[in-house]
Design goal:
The complex is a heterodimer of chains A (274) and B (334). With 274 residues, chain A is α/β, with parallel strands linked by helices. Chain A has ten helices and ten strands. Chain A has one domain: Rossmann fold, CATH 3.40.50. Helices cover 33% and strands 23% of the residues of chain A. The N terminus of chain A is likely disordered. Classes of the chains: A alpha/beta (274), B mainly alpha (334).
């Protein structure tokens, strides 16, 4: 791990990914997106563009729709009975909710990491190789290569290279979470969604995951839900503040944290509520 | 109160309060609650040991009653096929063989069916269909075994003899295998295995349904988020996670099959012979005991039946131990 420790709070002059939305793969645009769980509306007409090859943090109090929005991008929410949505979310200019979209293919392009690490009760190797395998990669050498590359990208290779056949659950919590990231990366996604990936990790493991995300944004779009405002300030390029199912404000992280336009954003990031 | 008693009491009081003079001696409530604690702890220990003691006494009682036969015939009791009450010679090999084969046959038929039912109910069935079907499957366990026996005798066996057995043997040409060859008797190992399959199906499927429902959502989502299809989620995330529980359910079904008496007695044909073909009649340990107990002539005959019971106990005990070990092994692999 080369270990660039991002220090966002003082890094105001750091260059930011500001390329046009359509340029790189991995651009996400929500258009008038609303979402309901039964009668309860969880998201209200979200209009939001996420820059490719950058880290976007979704912040806000619990139950304000951050995770719902995240899980709408890879359509993981639609498996819950009784849900409904309006509007759309575009990935690389194509609506992911279009009837022609193959959900399985979509989820291979959009990887996801959850709050609680959830490796399969299989070997470390089998966990990372799972995505490629169900996509039809059968060749032994190719799989070996994917597993190694993915584990290296997740900064886990050095720790597990001698124990790839051991059960994934024998790893520590922080290692399991990085294994889950490696597993998501094995599919070569354009987008990586993370739902509070570090909330159950100790500070050292959290730092490792943050460093890792910082590396990963060179190649893909990272969207992270976090309750940890320092974390959002440290690692993200852009921040979006959700409140009661609405997107209150989105913009460059520096601006959101130092000079927000909205009073509610200011109150939240300075800790006056939330 | 006598003088001595009073003095003893005073001395005891001094002795008790001596180490902690500041505190008065313990109140009656404290002493009472301490006694209560003891009574409680001894009584739950008693209740808990009651079950192993009961099991042990059953083993001992059956073992003692079986001893004359086991001593007379030795190891040949489990290897000999000769069961002749008139000649006072007893060998239980056909019954042991029949118990094992009919139970294994039942599991081979019931397991895929039960897993299919459970997976369908917990993963695919529309909500309005789940409850009625689950209830119906569970109801199979509530049917008295004599009903299964009667139904088997008058419905299942004729169909087997006239349609299923000839179909398997001739149409599918399975007759080349010894297992499916020979005369298609109605009452047979095959019929017994089939009825046992129906009887253990609800157990396996109920347990499997529960363990599938207990698989955490995070496991399903992990597979889904990697682009798994619905079937791949079940195959790769749900079933492996639930594996040890499913094995437990299968073993529960096996336990049921090994000990089942009534329905098997009515359908297996009760013939003392190890036949290669599943279409031929056989015997099981449970049905042997049930059939001959009331008319056992002579002490050795009775003892031989007890010995059969002892072997049956041992077999079920070993199967359960093996099941425990298997569940433990697969659970540990996580």
């Amino acid at each position: 791990m080369t270990g660039v420790v991002p220090n966002k709070s003082t890094g105001a002059g750091r260059p930011r990914a500001s390329s046009p939305i359509s340029g790189h793969p991995g651009a996400i645009v929500a258009r008038q997106f609303s979402f309901w769980y039964g009668a309860k509306q969880a998201l209200h007409e979200i209009d939001f563009a996420i820059q490719p090859r950058s880290i976007t943090a979704l912040i806000g109090p619990s139950g304000c729709g951050k995770s719902t929005f995240l899980r709408s991008i890879n359509r993981l929410n639609e498996l819950i009975p009784g849900v409904r949505r309006e509007g759309g979310i575009e990935l690389d200019g194509a609506d992911v909710y279009d009837s022609s979209v193959d959900v399985v293919a979509l989820r291979q392009r959009v990887g996801m990491v959850f709050q609680r690490w959830n490796p399969f009760p299989k070997s470390i190797y089998a966990n990372v190789a799972y995505g490629p395998r169900i996509n039809g990669v059968r060749d032994r050498h190719e799989l070996d290569l994917i597993v190694e590359t993915s584990l290296r990208r997740a900064a886990l290779w050095e720790e597990v290279r001698d124990r790839l056949r051991e059960s994934a659950t024998s790893l520590s919590g922080g290692q399991q979470q990085r294994l889950c990231i490696a597993r998501a990366l094995a599919n070569e996604p354009e987008v990586l969604l993370l739902d509070e990936p570090a909330s159950a990790l100790d500070p050292i493991s959290t730092q490792r995951v943050e460093e890792l995300l910082y590396e990963l944004k060179q190649q893909l779009t990272v969207v992270i839900v976090t309750h940890n405002l320092q974390q959002a300030a440290r690692i993200s390029d852009n921040t979006a503040f959700f409140f009661l199912g609405r997107l209150v404000e989105a913009g460059p992280t520096d601006q959101i944290f130092t000079n927000p336009h909205e009073e509610r954003t200011d109150a939240y990031v300075t800790g006056r509520f939330g | 109160m006598t003088e001595f008693a009073a003095r003893d009491a005073a001395r005891a009081g001094v002795a008790a309060s001596a180490p902690t003079p500041a505190r008065p001696s313990r109140s009656w409530t404290e002493i009472g609650s301490e006694i209560g604690d003891r009574v409680y702890s001894w009584s739950i220990v008693g209740f808990a040991s009651l079950v192993p003691i009961l099991l042990l006494t059953i083993f001992v009682a059956v073992g003692v009653a079986a001893w004359p036969a086991l001593r007379t015939f030795g190891f040949s009791f489990v290897t000999s096929s000769d069961w002749d009450p008139v000649a006072q010679h007893f060998g239980a090999a056909p019954a042991i063989y029949g118990t094992l084969v009919s139970s294994i046959l039942a599991l081979i038929i019931a397991t895929p069916l039960a897993l299919g039912v459970a997976v369908f109910l917990s993963e695919f069935a529309p909500p309005w269909l789940r409850q009625p079907v689950a209830f119906t499957v569970d109801l199979l366990a509530a049917v008295p075994s004599v009903i299964y026996g009667v139904w088997g005798m008058y419905v299942l066996v004729p169909v087997l003899r006239t349609h299923v057995m000839p179909f398997l043997r001739d149409t599918l040409h399975l007759g080349v295998l010894p297992l499916f060859s020979g005369v298609a008797y109605g009452p047979s190992m095959f019929a017994a295995g089939l009825i046992l399959a129906i009887m253990c199906l609800p157990y396996i499927s109920a347990v499997t349904r529960e363990v599938l429902a207990a698989v955490p959502r995070s496991q399903r989502e992990a597979a889904l988020a990697l682009g798994a299809t619905r079937w791949e989620v079940i195959r790769d995330a749900v079933i492996p996670y639930a594996r040890s529980g499913i094995i437990g359910g299968i073993m529960l079904g096996l336990g049921r099959a090994l000990g089942e008496t009534m329905a098997v007695t009515m359908l297996i044909g009760n013939r003392h012979e190890i036949a290669a073909s599943l279409f031929a009649p056989g015997y099981t340990m449970a049905s042997l005991i049930a059939n001959e107990f009331s008319e056992a002539t002579g002490d050795l005959h009775l003892s031989a039946l007890m010995a059969v019971g002892f072997v049956l106990l041992l077999v079920t005990f070993l199967v359960n131990a093996a099941a425990r070990w298997l569940v433990w092994q697969t659970a540990r692999e996580r």
